[in-house]
Design a protein that fits this description.
With 314 residues, the chain is of the alpha+beta class. The protein has helices spanning 7-17, 19-25, 31-38, 42-52, 90-104, 112-128, 143-152, 276-285, 296-312, and strands spanning 66-70, 73-78, 154-162, 167-181, 184-191, 194-199, 203-212, 237-243, 257-263, 266-273, 290-294. Strands 6-5-4-3-7 form a five-stranded antiparallel beta sheet, with helices on one face. A four-stranded antiparallel beta sheet has the order 9-10-8-11. Strand 5 and strand 6 (194-199) form a beta hairpin. Residues 130-139 and 219-224 have low confidence and may be disordered. InterPro entries: CBASS_pafABC_assoc_protein, PafC-like, PafC_HTH, WCX_dom, WYL_dom.
Length: 314
């Protein structure tokens, strides 16, 4: 006999999944702050976050929600596209209401009150708010100001969260274009003469400013922006790495090329990178999985930091 999910279980599932869009809007929130804002205990919040790490459409790493919940803050690494609160479209709501109304007339229903209550809630929502399927809401979030800036060729002031440095700060940029890659939307822009890319879902606020975009920012053939290589990987520096055999899955998430060569049992790999600081942060975050062979100065920097960390505990 199939066991039916209780309303409480369904409510808990919706509450858990809605944590992800909340975290996109509050990237620096701690579990204590989340509990205060959403009205349930911090232990329940942490439990929901830990369950999310094991959720997804499949079993492979790229099919699972990935986040790092800590008491000091929560970092969303891969949201699997769940970046908006769960809601029904008008078509879905009508279809569900028709099903519930047919169930209301069925004799012998186990929990008739639950069906009646759910149907009434949908009727109330649909009577208060009507949205045609042919209508589209205004461009949400940062995309509205970005679109205006591109059409008017004006500068933008962004409040941007960087996942690599785990910081949020203001950036003044010259927008160049928008592109999509691997399910994410990116803004191509020039900041202080350097081409940069910004994930749109990490832009907390975008404000138009009066300054015009310099012509050099988007001139065809310009050295600061290349539409064929928006991430700048073509001109990036390349590091030689050693990857632990059990951590080759890192190549599924970063642009790491694995080679057949082995070095003391570890897999030799190469990886393009933009800045030394980024490579150092990346390797420190994967300290037990990744070892830098070249550039030498990065390997020496990592060794020095490791030695300093050990001395603190000596």
């Amino acid at each position: 006999m199939t066991k039916k999910d209780s309303p409480e279980k369904i409510s808990n599932l919706v509450r858990t999944l809605n944590l992800i869009p909340y975290l996109h809007k509050h990237p620096n929130a701690t579990p204590m702050e989340i509990a205060r804002d959403l009205g349930y205990s911090h232990t329940d919040v942490m439990g929901d976050l830990q369950r999310l790490m094991l959720s997804g459409v499949g079993k492979r790493p790229e099919e699972l929600i990935d986040l790092a919940p800590e008491w000091s803050g929560v970092t969303v690494i891969d949201d699997q596209g769940m970046n908006a609160p769960l809601r029904l479209t008008p078509t879905e709501a009508n279809a569900l209401l028709l099903t519930l109304e047919s169930l209301e007339t069925m004799p012998g229903l186990i929990d008739h009150s639950a069906v009646t209550s759910a149907a009434q809630k949908i009727r109330e929502v649909m009577s208060n708010v009507g949205v045609s399927d042919a209508e589209h809401p205004d461009t949400p979030g940062a995309l509205g100001p970005i679109s205006e800036a591109l059409s008017q060729r004006r500068m933008l002031r962004l409040t941007y969260y960087s996942a690599t440095s785990d910081t949020t700060r203001e950036r003044t940029v010259a927008p160049v274009g928008i592109f999509h890659r691997d399910g994410n939307t990116y803004l191509s822009a020039v900041e202080e003469g350097t081409a940069k890319t910004f994930r749109v879902d990490r832009i907390k606020e975008a404000l138009l400013i009066d300054d015009p975009v310099p012509a050099s920012a988007s001139t065809p053939g310009s050295s600061v922006y290349n539409a064929a290589d928006p991430f700048g990987f073509g001109d990036a520096k390349v590091a030689t790495l050693r990857i632990h055999p059990e951590a080759t899955w890192l190549a599924d998430f970063w642009q790491i090329e694995l080679h057949d060569e082995r070095d003391r049992g570890w897999v030799v790999a190469t990886m393009p990178y933009g800045s030394d600081d980024w490579l150092v942060r990346f390797c420190l975050s994967q300290a037990d999985r990744v070892d830098v062979v070249e550039p030498i100065h990065i390997a020496e920097e990592l060794a020095a930091r490791g030695k300093a960390a050990l001395e603190r505990y000596a």
